[in-house]
Design goal:
The protein has 374 residues and is of the alpha/beta class. The chain is built from 15 helices and 13 strands. The chain folds into three domains: 104 residues, Rossmann fold (3-Layer(aba) Sandwich), CATH 3.40.50.720; 164 residues, Rossmann fold (3-Layer(aba) Sandwich); 38 residues, no CATH class. Helices cover 35% and strands 13% of the residues. Strand 8, helix 8 and strand 9 form a beta-alpha-beta unit.
Amino acid sequence: MRILADQNIPGLEWYFQPLGEVRLMEGRDITARDLRDVDVLLVRSVTRVDQALLQGSRVRFVGSATAGLDHVDIKGLRAAGVGFAAAPGANANAVVEYVLAAIAMQPDMLERLLDGGRVGIIGYGYVGRLLRKRLAALGIASLQCDPWLAPDQVPESASLDGVLGCDVVSVHTSLTRDGPWPSFHLLRASQLARLGSRNLLINASRGAVVDQAALLARLQATDPPQCVLDVWEFEPDVSVALLRRVSVGTAHIAGYSHDAKLAATRQLALAVQNAFGLLQHPVTAAAAADTLVPPAGLRGVAVLRWLCGARYDIRADDRRLREAVLGVDAVRARKAFDELRRTYPMRRELAGSCVQAGSAEQRRWISALGGIVG
């Protein structure tokens, strides 16, 4: 079996070399010519997989190490008899920890939320469900908006207007352009006008869910909301004007933890083995990370704020993006954006990590965030 894979998918040597010959390429550079003698194609979101890419190839299976599917023509694959699998849910916890880190860095937002504030969640898939679970365990209320689901499938179902009335609005919907409820430019000028300086908008889904031009105009207007963007409408192009206005800007890395990446690769390996009827090879999990110890003297919400950033420094990713794209020409900025993702440093998750606790309150918060009390 011949396998062509995006070189930025980790764990390929562990999970796929036992299955066949693996060749690596930069994901954005994969063309139809590269697939002529390939049986399995493994991609990330930077590779558009459609009839044009697969024309004349012998590809029988496509795997995407992603949760989002807007880069893959699934109907076309099905019509051509090509198998497909993605990695839904693999990066959900990493994205949730990104959101919590974004909330925790705001000067008083955690306090407001713990004192009766609410988080509005747009999209109730893997990430939305896990975010609600983590918030509920912390004692933070939330509303969820997902018109694609029946009301009884969404615990605190609300309209889009209802969600926009929350202190924090966190976007986790997939990108769809078809009816009855397309998410493309779901948040436009009229919706963004609902958000003011006491609101925090977080988009860690797809850039085009928020109208980028309308968002820039809102952030340039009176009483703008705080805004954290991990995704950009025209990636790998990043709007410099928008980046200068947001509180935090990162390079589409919210789900880029080491744990999430390996989980996605494991899912694809199992899918390929099942699709081709291969002998099941052992699929191991990531090794345990080091034990975390909260600094002495922390009390109250300061402990929770520390926990939210203990494994992930969102400010460092913001700094990396600004240093990479500000002050350079568009061509260099695009390359820098991809390079940030390709060379992303090792990042572990708080969930599953052992954390030493000094009080009952600390034990409760560690457990609420998925950590193991040491």
